[in-house]
TrEMBL record:
A Pfam family recorded for this sequence: DUF5914
Highest taxon of the lineage: Bacteria
Keyword hit for Iron: yes
Name of this protein: DUF5914 domain-containing protein
Classification via PROSITE patterns: RIESKE
Molecular function GO terms recorded: 2 iron, 2 sulfur cluster binding; metal ion binding; monooxygenase activity; oxidoreductase activity, acting on paired donors, with incorporation or reduction of molecular oxygen
Keyword Iron: yes
Record keywords: 2Fe-2S, Iron, Iron-sulfur, Metal-binding, Oxidoreductase
Domain Rieske residues, every copy: 52-141
Gene source species: Streptomyces sp. R17
Length: 335
């Protein structure tokens, strides 16, 4: 670890020694106490969000189409106006109900493709905007009627590296579950090396939350690169608001880098089951001289980062969906 007083390695990779087979690693089920995970989840759910919801990546804005998302059954559209500001509002045209997500943006104005009603982001013809926020990586919309909390002027954005000096990538996926199932997955770090052996090895939870202070899980873990080559780090997981879990790298390679997992409720599917969007932002930073080359190659690297996230979330959404299926039928054994 970088924080243990030893000189940092010239290369970020380590050779894993005394590797054990997957089935011979130390079981973690006794440590992963259901009451501990449930307590962390309950405290996260009690933190204020100010009714802000992540709806997509900042890079998704700026084209000739708005970003469309359904949040808790409410259609939302987001785009940039003529001055480049992020604007948002209902996705249903107030005239005859056209889906505005399918309408084009022309010179910062959203033009309904049914009858030409034009929206520049201000109140017009019964259409009222929603507060919107672009933090440079993600786009948020405030929906007071959905959240029902005391509104906040801005969302609770986790601390992260400056995007201009970082490599950023955003993954989005959808699962049949509720946001709490996604958050609970992230507040269970013990499953990493068992459930994702292709990515994580030698995982040890070194600190657990006590309901005070940062309320964090600290984990020593190695990210697999190839064969026995790994990148060992210390990662700290926190939940700054009800629908967000953040992993900060605090020691080892890439100190300061974050992975933000945001869960946005979408509304029921055709069978009445809840659907949740997972929008995960990777904001990677490093003070190594070679990292400037990585930033320069960001257009090539972002798809690779998204592919890695998608592989993890293929499994973790199955975890979240299973948790919801058990909860919804009274069979979930957790506290």
């Amino acid at each position: 670890m970088a924080g243990d007083g030893r000189r940092r390695r010239r290369l970020p990779l380590s050779l894993r020694r005394n590797a054990v087979a997957w089935e011979r690693q130390r079981p973690t089920w006794r440590d992963a106490k259901p009451a501990l995970i449930a307590g962390a989840l309950k405290r996260a759910q009690a933190r204020p969000s100010g009714n802000w919801y992540v709806v997509g990546a900042s890079r998704d804005l700026g084209g000739d189409r708005p970003l469309g998302r359904t949040v808790a059954g409410q259609e939302v559209v987001v785009w940039r106006d003529a001055d480049g500001r992020t604007v948002a509002g209902p996705g249903v045209c107030p005239h005859l109900g056209a889906p505005l997500r399918d309408s084009p943006v022309r010179c910062g104005t959203l033009v309904c493709h049914w009858h030409g009603l034009s929206l520049n982001g201000g109140p017009f013809a019964g259409w009222e905007p929603f507060p919107a926020h672009d933090d440079g990586v993600l786009v948020w919309v405030r929906l007071d009627a959905v959240g029902g909390e005391e509104p906040l002027d801005a969302p609770v954005v986790p601390r992260r590296p400056v995007p201009a000096r970082a490599l950023t990538a955003v993954y989005a996926g959808t699962g049949v579950c509720e946001p709490e199932d996604v958050v609970a997955n992230r507040l269970d770090p013990w499953h990493g090396a068992w459930f994702h052996p292709y990515s994580f090895v030698d995982l040890t939870v070194v600190d657990t939350p006590e309901g005070a202070g940062e309320d964090a899980f600290a984990v020593d873990v190695s990210f697999k690169v190839a064969g026995r080559l790994v990148v060992p780090v210390r990662a700290v997981f926190t939940a700054p608001e009800p629908r967000t879990v953040v992993m900060h790298i605090t020691e080892g390679e890439g100190v300061g880098s974050v992975v933000e997992t945001h869960a946005t409720p979408l509304g029921p599917d055709a069978s009445g089951r809840p659907r949740t969007a997972v929008i995960e932002a990777v904001v990677a930073a490093s003070d190594r001289r070679g990292f400037a080359l990585a930033r320069a190659a960001a257009p090539l690297l972002r798809p690779l980062v998204r592919t890695a996230s998608a592989r993890l979330w293929r499994d973790d959404l199955a975890y979240a969906e299973r948790r919801w299926a058990l909860r919804s039928t009274g069979r979930f054994p957790g506290a």
